[in-house]
Amino acid sequence: MPSERQYRQEIVRLGAALHRSGFVAATDGNLSVRLDENRILVTPTSVSKGSMRPSDLVIVDPEGRKLGGRRDVSSEIAMHLLIYRLRPDIRAVVHAHPPTATGFAASGLALNQPLVCEIVVSLGCVPLARYGTPGTAELSQALRPLIPQYDAILMANHGVVSYGEELQQAYMKMETVEHFAKIALTAHLLGQEQPLQEDDLAKLMVARSKYAGSRSAAPMPLEPQNGGPSGNHHNRNRIASDSDKPVSAPRR
User: What per-residue confidence (pLDDT) applies to 124?
Assistant: First the structure.
């Protein structure tokens, strides 16, 4: 188990990586690590992730009360705390605004089409939570039904949250979401999406069970409709409601 000092250094390193990649701007985004059952190390509010120092980080308890640190706690700490409560297996959370994936979220589109086998294996699909004002209970309520089954979630008109058993894993899931969003956008612009078929998905589910990276009970992407790819690529998911099952809707 890394020490608190090592966790502080890792949060600073990956915060800078988010900033360099353009996944956050100005003081956007936040990262956290569960140190133990009673302490969570989290990035502070109003600090650029590209210029943080280890001493800037704040420690809170599972209720969000500050236990240590000279800076103020992020206003979005409730989202992190909710994920830790609902997913005992999770030890790290990353929230950012990667441009392409956030563009999908701002357009009311989930990343749920099985277009790339590696992403099906590593992440499954990425649902879209309905809009909730950042830093309020609205956002937590929008995320609550999705957290137990998914390892990354688009938040309507907001951004992306990803989480994992360690911070590097949570960060890589964020990279995967943005990479998938770029592929999905390119396939859409080309007008020739070819989603994987049901038998291919079944094989990938077997392969997925052999690899670490996704320990949740995430449902696989929607099965192809009308017996082939041409039926599926005319559908997108609406924003997820209290039900964790996507609802198909005509593309706008």
Answer: 82
CATH topology of domain 4-243: L-fuculose-1-phosphate Aldolase (3.40.225)
Asked whether the beta carbons of 125 and 205 are under 8 A apart, the reply is no
- The per-residue pLDDT for range 157-204, each reduced to its tens digit, is 999 999 999 999 999 999 999 999 999 999 999 998 999 998 888 888
Sequence-distant (6+) residues with CB within 8 A of 121 are: 204, 207, 208, 211, 213
User: Residue 192 and residue 31: Cα distance in Å, rounded?
Assistant: 37
Quick one: tokens of 68? 């240590």
What are the domain boundaries of the chain?
A: 4-243
188-214 exposure pattern, b = at least 16 Cβ within 10 A, e = fewer = beeeebebbeeeebeebeeebeeeeeb
Residue-by-residue DSSP string for 110-153: -B-----HHHHHHT--B-EEPP--TTSHHHHHHHTTTTTT-SEE
Which residue reads 């992730």 in tokens?
49
